[in-house]
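Why does residue order matter? Because the sequence determines the fold. Keep that principle in mind as you read this record.
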Amino acid sequence: MNSILLNISVLVSLSGCHLIGGEVQPFKDMGTTGRMDAGEIQNDLGTAGDVSNFDTNSNSDVGRDTISTPDLLDMPQMDACGNGAIDSDEACDGVLFGEKNCVSEGFVGGVLLCSAECKLDVTKCEPGGKISSGYLFSCHLDSQGETRCWGSDEDGIVSASVGMYTKLFSGNSTACGLDKGENLECWGNTENIPTQPPGQFVDIAIGDSHLCGILTDGRIQCFGDNYWGQSNAPEGIFKEIDAGYGHNCALMESGEIKCWGANASDQSTPPSGTFVRISIGHNHGCAIRDDETVQCWGDNIGFPQGSFEQISSGSYFTCGIRPDKSAHCWGSNDFRQQDIPANTSYVELSAGAQHVCGVKLDGTLVCWGDNAKGQATP
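Structure:
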C-alpha cells in the first residue's frame, strides 16, 4: 500500500498537482511551460525530497516515504523510444514495424529488427542479386563474392574474367556487378553501355542496349540507346528499378510506380496505388502491392491470386515466391517455364527470356525452361 500511494503522489505531482490533507491541489504557478523547477517542487514538498507536508493522519505510511526531486524531473517522457508506439521520429519501436518488413526495404526476405534507437536494422534481411538471368544466360554470386555464368557466350559473358561483387544484374546481352564500394562494372555487349558507368549505385536495370541505375542519393541516371526515350530519367527519389526491352519502371519512395520509354503495349503505363516490389519483362510489368497481391500491366499475361514476397519477369511470363517460399509462374509456357521443380522452396528467383533460375533454401541452384544454349544448366 505504501509504495502504491507514493506512486500516486508522484503521478499527481507530475500532472501539475500535489496532495494536501488527502485532497488534490494545484501547484502555485507552473508558468507557461507546464513545468516546475527543482526549487518550486522543493517549496511545495517541503525540504528537498521530504514529503512531510502530506497528510499523515490516515492509516497509510505516505508521510514516512521520501522521493528525490531529480527523480521527478528525470522520469521518461511518454513519447520516448521504447514506449511501445511508433512515434513520428521513429522507424520502429520494439517489435512494432507498422507496414515495414525486409521485402518493403528492398530485400528478398529475412527478419527485420529494430535497434535500441528505434531505427530499422536490416542485418538479418536477405539481400537479392545472388542470381541474375539474362536473355540466354544466367549468372550466380557465391558466398565469397565470386561470379559464375553459364549459357550463351556469344557476347563473352560466360568466359569473361570479372571481379568480386555484392549484387548481379543482367540484361539482353549484358551483365553487370556492383562491388562493395557501390561501383558498377559491366561486361558482355557494351557497345552502348559503359563498362564502368560513373557514379555509385544501389540498384540498376539493363535493357536491350541501355542501362539505368539508382544512385546512392535516390536519383536515376541512364546510359545508352534512347530511341524510345528510355534513357530520359525522370526526376524524383527512387528505391527500385527494372527494365524491359526498350522501357524502364522504377518504384518511388512513396510506393508509386513511374515508367518511361517504349509504350506500344502500354508497358510504360503502370497502375496507380502503393507497391513494394516491381519486375519488368519484355513488354509487360508486374508489381507487388502493399497487401502482397500482384498486379500486372502491358502485354496481357494475366496475374495470379494470393500473396507474394518476390517476383521476376521474363519475356512473356512472370514467376514469384510466396510467403511459404513456394514458387508460382504465370503467362507463357511455350518453353515449359511454368514447370517448376516440385517440393522445392526458394529464397530468390530470376527469369530470363524463356527460362528461370532459383536459389533454394539450402543455397543450391536449380533452373528450368528453355535450355537451347545451356542457360538452364547451372
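The longest strand covers residues 201-206.
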